[in-house]
């Protein structure tokens, strides 16, 4: 493969040099014919008998006064300009290699046809006046000068035709070879960032987070340029990537995997961007698995964390502390109804584990209903809730858990008919439980499952069934909460329901380990039957981070930004879907979006290998995506909520290029 790439790259360079050399040769040929004193003026035919007239005609020619020779001067000038355009096209192809093939071809054609059109015009005009005589006066002598047959114009026309043919062939061949070569000579800052797709929406103010005076390239050596950003990380002085890989392999559990064949080593982050050890910048489209909500190292969150760390780093809830009490009030104020009591933990798995225990204690029942394709954590208890074999170990897990049909509008058996899926849940309760259940736990958009929204009308029908069976409804908002869906602060609000218990984590702390279970006072009281304690739950530093996140979401209107940026992203991706048959489905809300790739839109056969290839290629081009779904054929686009319109354009352009290369 490397030999093929080098050969293709060498051929591209050779063709570019040949094109430049050919253009220079034609300039020399034109100059030889048209330059004063060359002996073959277009417009003046002479012999030794009219030398004074020749001298006068030469003077005329140089000053651009003589009618016919002036015409020839213009032929010369237009010939030169066409050749220069050809040289520029060749240089662009050689050094930038970023213009689409059609644009480069049009550039070559423009120069060629400009030249050709003038040569034809000059030839026709000269032919019409061929053999006519013109009288000129030199001092006191008047001389008649015959206008000769314009052979030079015909030669110029032939040169133009030759250059046109050669140049267009070179451009087409070069563009064909580019896909093989991938020389990595550096993306030009003027490279199109929108992949040729229309731009038709505007976002709310982007504030400071992507303001700059100059563009920053994706540093991939090819592809679209990253949006401008005013931050350059300090030089990395830590261990090399190779050393980190060696240490990781030697001392970390082998179950801890990394993405990509050539993994990325991240050493710095600011807002929606990440930086590797070389200083290369990437656009983060996955937010640390949907965890960095308001932006990497957001200054407001950093300030709150630093101030609290300097004052008090850790205590527990056996002592009073202002941070945990105030945060509990501020957080529960964001929830509807009687959801007013919080219990803080460290992760989504812990939160869902506790929610199941509370449901069972409150109802006195044991059975829990969940969905196929679900993901609620990887503790032994929550592993039982999993609806994907990829994450399950062959150990006893999740006693009393039942998986209902997944209300997947794209792949589900009932399409987008939510009540039809709810009827399956009714059958499940009758057939697989004693008739009474402890509860139903669900994501409002399945995250690890590939950003799958639940069919319209499903949750109201399912909630009624569960409550009629004596259970409580648990909304897992670990990924969808805090305004990410744009249209609502909590994902469950998009279907008009209010759960009995809400679990949250990930984006709640913008990257700090923090989770919460929020419920009603009646349900919360069941934990008081015994002593319950969490060492790090309510840690003051985590509480300070959580409070700062709430403030930033409100102050920077990030829910509104998710609505606008997410809506624009979905529009652009659906335009992309029209260009690429491999895109089977584009789905989601706000900045929680899924793109599923299939080999055939009718059979919906998962395009697993193709997804892996595009996933790797996007990384090479400066875009870090997430990947998920039962078959691993869905891209998960869940970036920091501060994404801008320019970020969307870059992401779509990268996807467009990566898909085009399949």
From TrEMBL:
Cofactor annotation: pyridoxal 5'-phosphate
GO terms for biological process, alphabetical: glyoxylate catabolic process; L-alanine catabolic process, by transamination
Top-level taxon of the source organism: Eukaryota
Gene Ontology molecular function: alanine-glyoxylate transaminase activity; pyridoxal phosphate binding
Compartments reported by the entry: Mitochondrion
EC number: 2.6.1.44
Keyword field: Aminotransferase, Membrane, Mitochondrion, Pyridoxal phosphate, Transferase, Transit peptide, Transmembrane, Transmembrane helix
Main location as per UniProt: mitochondrion
InterPro entries: Aminotrans_3, Aminotrans_3_PPA_site, PyrdxlP-dep_Trfase, PyrdxlP-dep_Trfase_major, PyrdxlP-dep_Trfase_small
Region (Disordered): 213-233
GO cellular component: mitochondrion
Pfam families assigned to the protein according to its UniProt record, in alphabetical order: Aminotran_3
TM stretches of this protein: 7-31, 78-98, 156-173
Subunit text: Homotetramer.
Family statement: Belongs to the class-III pyridoxal-phosphate-dependent aminotransferase family.
Protein name, per record: alanine--glyoxylate transaminase
Species this chain originates from: Chlorella sorokiniana (Freshwater green alga)
